[in-house]
Amino acid sequence: MSNLESKFPPGFLWGGATAANQFEGAYNEDGKGLSIQDIYPKGIKGGRTARPTEDNMKLVGIDFYHRYKEDIALFAEMGFKTFRMSIAWSRIFPNGDDSEPNEKGLEFYDKVFDELAKYDIEPLVTLSHYETPLALSKNYDGWKNRKLIDFFERYVRTVFTRYKDKVKYWLTFNEINSTLHYPYMGAGVWTPKERLSTEDLYQTIHHKLVASALAVKVGHEINPEFKIGCMILGIPNYPLTPKPSDVIQAMQDDRQNLFFADVHARGEYPKYMKRLFKENNIELNITNEDKELLKHTVDFISFSYYMSSCSTSDPEKDIQGEGNFLGGVANPHLEASDWGWQIDPEGLRYILNQLYYRYQKPLFIVENGLGANDELITDENENKTVNDDYRIKYLNDHLVQVAEAIEDGVELMGYTTWGCIDLVSNSTAELRKRYGFIYVDRYDDGSGTLERYRKKSFYWYKGVIASNGQIL
Ligand code: BGP
C-alpha cells in the first residue's frame, strides 16, 4: 500500500484499548468496591484482582492506577489520537446501589482525562466492561434484576455529568452479545448458568438492552455532542460447506451476534427474535416504557474482532469450542494463535461490510490484536525490547483489510488495538498472553518490576499512525 494515497480518512482515530479491571490494579484503593471480575476464578490460577497473594499477581493488574502518567506519555509517543478505557463502576459506586458517588473514584478519572487532554488524545470510554459491582451481583442477581437499570442510570448520569466536557466518545456495554454465553461475566448473574432458564437469560439481556438505550438517551440530554455507541463481539460465521443447510446455520449463528446490533441500531426487536421467543415459549416482560426507550438508537456501532468461525448443520461436526471463542467449528483454511483463536484478516473486511451495509451507521473497530508469548531481550544498544514481528504481521494484515473495507465504502471512525500495553487476559487471567506495544515486566508468578519497555511493534505502530496508514 505504501506508494498509494492513504485510504484512511483525515482525522481517523488511531489508538489502543484497555479495560479498568484488566490493568488498573488498586482493586480496593480510595474507596473502590469489588467488581465481579475481582473474584472471578479463571484460568489455572484462580482469581483475578481480589486479594493479592504471592502466587496470584494478577490481582494487581499492571498498576495503571499509579502509573497512568507514564503510560499515557508512551501512548502519546506512539501518536495515539484516541485511547479506549473503561470506568470501573465500583470505583464510582462501590456497591452499585449507593446513593452517593465516591469522590475519590471520580477524581481518578478526572486526572486520567486531563492527562490525555495534554496530548490531544480523545478518550473513548466504555461504561461497563464486564465490571458489574460485585454487591449488585450477589444481592440482586445482577442484570437478571430490573432494578439494575435504575442503578446503572444513576451511575451513567453521574459520569456523563462529571465528564461532559472531557469525554465525547462513549460505549455502553462491552461485547454485549457475550451475555448470551457468559451471564456472570456479561451481566453479573450470580445464579449459575446451568440453573438459569433461557427465559431468564433473555430477560437479563433485555434489561441490558434497555439500559444501553437509556444511556444513549440520558447522554444526549446531558451533552448533545456526545457520540455514543454499542459494542459487539464481532465473530462472523461462515458456512462450513456450501450445503444450503450449512448456509442457513451460519445465518442463524450470525443472528446470535447481530440481534444485539439490530436492537441498538433499529430501536426494536427484530422479527426473527419474536419467532425464536414464540417457538421456545419465552415470554419476556417488555413494558411500553421499555419499547419507547429502545427507540434511542446509537450514534455508531463498535466491535471487537479477533476471529471468524464456521457453522455446520451436522451435529457430529459441531464440536463446541473447537478452536473458537463461542463454539463453532474450526476453519480448515486458517491458522490459529497460541491460544487457538483462528486468524482471519479477510474476515475483518467481511464483517465491516456486513455491519456497514446492514445499518449504514459509522463503525469503530475498538479491539483487534494478537495475544502471544513475548520474549524480553536486550538489544545491541542495551535496551530491553521484544522482537514481535508476528504481532506486526498480524496487525498489518488486518489493517490492509480495513483499508480494503474503506475502499468498499465503509464509514469507519477509528481503530484501537486491544491491550496496547500488556495487561491481564480476560479469558485466562494470565499476563503471559500479551497483546501490547509496551511490554510490562510482570509475570504470572507475581515477580517483576512493573517497568515498561517499548516493543518493536511500538515503533511500527508509531509509523502507521504518523503516515495515516500509508506504510502498511
Ligand atoms: C475481549 C474482551 C477484552 C479482552 C479481549 C482479549 O473479548 O473485551 O476484555 O480481554 O477479548 O481476550 P483475552 O484477554 O481473553 O485474550
Automatic annotation (TrEMBL):
Organism: Orenia marismortui
UniProt key word Nucleus: no
Any one GO cellular component localisation term in the record: cytosol
SUPFAM superfamilies: (Trans)glycosidases
Identification of the protein by name: 6-phospho-beta-glucosidase
Swiss-Prot/TrEMBL GO biological process terms: carbohydrate catabolic process
PANTHER family according to UniProt: 6-PHOSPHO-BETA-GLUCOSIDASE ASCB-RELATED, GLYCOSYL HYDROLASE
Transmembrane domains' residue ranges: none
Annotated active site: 367 (nucleophile)
Assigned keywords, A-Z: Glycosidase, Hydrolase
GO MF annotation list: beta-glucosidase activity
Domain of life: Bacteria
Record family assignment: Belongs to the glycosyl hydrolase 1 family.
